[in-house]
Structure formats: structure tokens, C-alpha cells
């Protein structure tokens, strides 16, 4: 289940992860070819476009991106951990309704 958002920061690099999305915690070994989440991106959203309605849906949040200890640059050859927001849908819907 997805939470509808009218606007949200869109990371095109996340779109290949669609096949990994389910109700389990999300950890991926997808390789980004030089682009992807990095330090400071925690909380950014993985969003999915429903092509039938042209509405973007928030599916997960960046929790942890790895840094190469030698270069102190993003290490896109290691896993990125995402928080699966489907487990928080009731709280999200209640919070959006209260605002």
C-alpha cells in the first residue's frame, strides 16, 4: 500500500528498485553506475509513478548510504538501506488527516 503525496523529491536513480518493493524491510545491492543516495540523503524518498493516474507515491525512505573509508566519498558498490513505509501507513494517513 502506498501513501499519496502531492509533491515530493524524486530520485530517478531509485526507479530500478521497483522489483524489490514489498512489505519486508528493504535492503538492496542495486548498483547505480555512479549515481545514487549518499551521506546527507537520509530521509529522502523512493517514489513510484502510477502510470494510470499520473500520481507519485512514496514507497520508502533512505535510511543509510555507505561511504568509502579511504576516499570519504559515497560507496555505491555497497548496499543502501531503505525504510519500508508501508508498515507506517496508518500513522502517516492519520497525521496527514490531522494537518
UniProtKB/TrEMBL annotation:
InterPro entries: Peptidase_S1_PA, Peptidase_S1_PA_chymotrypsin. Keywords: Signal. Residues 1-23 form the signal peptide. This is Peptidase S1 domain-containing protein. The lineage of its organism: Eukaryota, Metazoa, Ecdysozoa, Arthropoda, Hexapoda.
Amino acid at each position: 500500500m502506498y501513501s499519496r503525496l502531492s509533491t515530493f523529491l524524486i530520485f530517478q536513480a531509485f526507479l530500478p528498485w521497483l522489483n524489490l518493493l514489498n512489505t519486508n524491510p528493504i535492503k538492496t545491492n542495486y548498483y547505480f553506475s555512479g549515481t545514487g543516495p549518499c551521506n546527507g540523503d537520509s530521509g529522502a524518498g523512493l517514489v513510484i509513478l502510477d502510470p494510470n493516474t499520473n500520481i507519485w507515491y512514496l514507497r520508502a525512505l533512505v535510511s543509510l548510504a555507505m561511504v568509502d573509508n579511504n576516499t570519504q566519498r559515497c560507496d555505491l558498490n555497497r548496499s543502501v538501506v531503505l525504510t519500508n513505509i508501508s508498515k507506517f501507513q496508518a500513522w502517516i494517513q492519520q497525521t496527514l488527516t490531522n494537518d
